[in-house]
């Protein structure tokens, strides 16, 4: 319900504060159109039914006009664009990530791939915590086994052992490491985006590490993915606490890094960045601005080849 309220606010009411003149112009255009119809009716049919309706229901026509303006000018909940001349699509979507169907889902996690929610080690408010409670309830043993199996298969011996861990996982992997979990036929990719202290506090949550995590994800999907649509949240901006970047920065980097990888290898037919409406309402950016950035990046992708070739960020290879 909270997500729906914020989504409605961002789509319908927030734009009014940004473009009041345009909304007023549209409103009076509807009113003017109605009276034009009244004049046509009087001139052609010699009747005045429409004007009588207005006289008998004075507030009805303005109310209907206002509702039409709000509905017709509302922001779309999803913006999709093709990547240059490719068939690959990139999308921005306002939704709850965990309600996504028909797509694989990325779950940000820590580099030790801990699942313990005891003592708020993994917060119930985090995306990972919500996923674990929704899918596994209170017993995460099956999830732990699936994560370990995936890590052992693709990243054998690619970790360091932390001696200060007693009740949590000791093996710490590189940022950008991915573990795949399958539940009811849907794939979930756990992506390591930050280190974590022995008490569960995220560490080193920087834009550099967000970039490294994203590149590692695309690298994994290009080799181990299922060529299915992939949906990713705005990583690092929630409970992780990104220290040197913004909500907007992460979305820009997600779009650019995916485009960069897609230039050379197939990652996914469609990559969707799922934006949680309450998070967007707290960010210093508008939905319209994010959608404009997406459209411009995709439109001029072919002209960005030079910038892409100069990128020196490399991913974490899958063995």
Q: What is the overall number of helices? A: 11
Task: Sum up the overall morphology in one term.
Answer: elongated
* SSE-based structural type: alpha/beta
Secondary structure: number of strands: 10
Strand content: 15-25%
CATH architecture of the largest domain: 3-Layer(aba) Sandwich
Between the first and last Cα atoms, what is the distance in angstroms?
43 Å
What does this structure look like?
This protein is α/β, with parallel strands linked by helices and 319 residues long. It has 2 domains: 71 residues, no CATH class; 232 residues, 3-Layer(aba) Sandwich (Leucine Aminopeptidase, subunit E, domain 1). The chain is built from 11 helices and 10 strands. Strands 1, 2, 3, 6, 7, 8, 9 and 10 form an 8-stranded mixed sheet that branches. The protein has a two-stranded antiparallel sheet with strand order 4-5. Strand 1 and strand 2 form a beta hairpin. The protein starts with a helix and ends in a 10-residue tail after the last helix. The mean pLDDT is 87.
Secondary structure elements and pairings:
Blueprint: H1 2-18, H2 20-45, H3 49-56, H4 60-72, E1 78-82, E2 89-94, E3 104-110, H5 127-136, H6 141-154, E4 159-161, E5 171-173, E6 178-183, E7 186-196, E8 202-203, H7 207-224, E9 230-233, H8 247-264, E10 270-275, H9 277-282, H10 287-299, H11 305-309
Parallel strand pairs: 2-10, 3-7, 3-9, 9-10
Antiparallel strand pairs: 1-2, 4-5, 6-7, 7-8
């Amino acid at each position: 319900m909270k997500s729906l309220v914020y989504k409605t606010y961002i789509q319908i009411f927030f734009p009014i504060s940004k473009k009041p003149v345009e909304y007023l112009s549209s409103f009076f255009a509807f009113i003017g159109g109605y009276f034009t119809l009244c004049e046509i009716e009087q001139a052609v049919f010699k009747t005045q039914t429409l004007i009588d309706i207005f006289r008998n229901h004075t507030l009805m026509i303005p109310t209907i006009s206002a509702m039409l303006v709000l509905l017709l000018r509302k922001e779309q909940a999803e913006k999709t664009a093709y990547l240059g001349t490719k068939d690959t699509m990139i999308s921005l979507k306002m939704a709850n990530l965990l309600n996504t169907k028909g797509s694989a889902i990325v779950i940000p996690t820590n580099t030790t791939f801990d699942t313990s929610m005891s003592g708020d080690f993994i917060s119930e408010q985090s995306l990972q915590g919500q996923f674990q409670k929704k899918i596994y309830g209170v017993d995460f043993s099956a999830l732990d086994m699936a994560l370990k199996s995936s890590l052992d298969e693709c990243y054998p011996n690619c970790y360091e052992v932390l001696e200060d861990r007693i009740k949590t996982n000791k093996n710490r992997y590189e940022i950008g490491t991915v573990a795949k979990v399958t539940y009811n036929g849907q794939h979930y990719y756990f992506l390591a985006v930050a280190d974590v202290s022995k008490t569960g506090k995220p560490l080193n949550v920087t834009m550099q590490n967000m970039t490294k995590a994203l590149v590692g994800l695309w690298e994994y999907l290009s080799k181990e993915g299922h060529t299915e649509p992939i949906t990713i949240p705005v990583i690092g901006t929630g409970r992780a606490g990104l220290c040197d970047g913004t909500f907007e920065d992460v979305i820009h980097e997600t779009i650019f890094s995916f485009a960069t990888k897609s230039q050379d290898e197939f990652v996914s037919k469609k990559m969707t960045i799922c934006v949680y409406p309450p998070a967007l309402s707290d960010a210093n950016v508008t939905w319209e601005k994010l959608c404009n950035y997406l459209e411009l990046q995709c439109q001029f992708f072919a002209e960005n080849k030079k910038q892409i070739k100069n990128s020196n960020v490399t991913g974490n290879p899958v063995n």
